[in-house]
Design goal:
The protein is an all-alpha fold. It is 76% helix and 0% strand.
């Protein structure tokens, strides 16, 4: 399989896992406080990464420094998203977080054709249809938190690209450090809710394990690995299909109903993502061709 297709496939897998995390997190937070879920999500992943942290593959000073910074930004994204959804409608939350698609290339300072923003607009229109069933409300505290989450998520994706460009940090080492940072950050705030874990059902623990190992460890690792081999803008577009997978999981496992508008919205998100990905790929290929030997371009190169 060509490297580009393999990298795109990994990013789509991350989008699928993150899409499924909404239903999982919703049921987990019905049984446990939000901060407790966030702490365990990172702590379980950190425990799984102990062999990496303490073994012969222990992170270097550079990997600890970069992983620590990325751990802060990733924790910020999850914190803002969780509390944002708690204080606004699902419709507003889904629409506002999708602004990551537009914010990523802006923060990445990518030189892209105007048609790229038309493609991003198609994605936004699709997300608007996906979430239209729950209705939109006047902006409030939750809406502002979701806007901050969209900025933080775009910034995190760009930061991964910036920190790993021209370097060779190991994705597994970075991911292990990120998990430890998140666990440390959430330990204090989550401490009052930890005693309830003694009465937590096995089903809730299974959900926590899925959030930690699949939505956390695997997703962070796969995202870091893939962004090292593509551009932050392309990654943002592929990860932007997350609302579609969230819808499919909700319909298939959560008993939600798929309306005609939701189906149209899902189609628009997929179409806009594919179109934008093609434009970004063509622009990046053109930049590489036009650059003189030994010169660099504004777009991160696939490796």
């Amino acid at each position: 399989m060509p490297t580009t297709r393999r990298t795109d496939g990994v990013l789509l897998a991350v989008a699928v896992v993150w899409g499924s995390s909404y239903l999982t997190a919703k049921t987990a937070t019905d049984a446990l406080p939000v901060l407790t879920v966030l702490f365990l999500r990172h702590a379980i992943a950190a425990l799984a990464g102990v062999p990496v942290l303490l073994g012969p593959w222990a992170p270097s000073r550079e990997e600890r420094r970069y992983g620590g910074l990325l751990g802060l930004t990733q924790a910020a994204v999850l914190l803002l998203e969780t509390y944002g959804v708690a204080h606004t409608s699902a419709g507003n939350a889904g629409l506002i977080i999708s602004l990551t698609l537009v914010l990523t290339p802006v923060l990445d300072r990518a030189v892209l054709p105007g048609r790229f923003f038309l493609a991003a607009g198609v994605c936004l229109a699709g997300v608007a249809l996906l979430v239209s069933g729950s209705g939109l409300h006047a902006p409030g505290t939750g809406d502002l938190l979701m806007l901050a989450a969209a900025v933080a998520r775009a910034g995190h994706v760009v930061l991964v690209g910036r920190l790993t460009a021209g370097r060779s940090p190991r994705p597994l080492a970075l991911t292990a450090v990120q998990s430890v940072v998140g666990a440390v950050l959430f330990l204090g705030p989550a401490a009052p809710g930890l005693p309830v874990l003694a009465r937590t059902a096995a089903g809730t623990w299974a959900q926590l394990l899925y959030l930690a190992l699949c939505c956390g460890l695997f997703a962070f690792l796969a995202q870091t690995w893939a962004i090292q081999r593509t551009s932050a803008t392309r990654a943002g577009l592929l990860l932007g299909t997350e609302p579609v997978w969230a819808l499919l999981v909700g319909v298939g496992l959560g008993g939600e109903h798929l309306t005609a508008l939701s189906a149209l919205g899902a189609a628009l998100v997929v179409t806009g993502t594919y179109w934008g990905r093609s434009l970004e790929s063509a622009q990046r290929a053109g930049a590489v061709t036009a650059a003189p030997a030994g010169a660099t371009t504004d777009l991160p190169q696939a490796r």
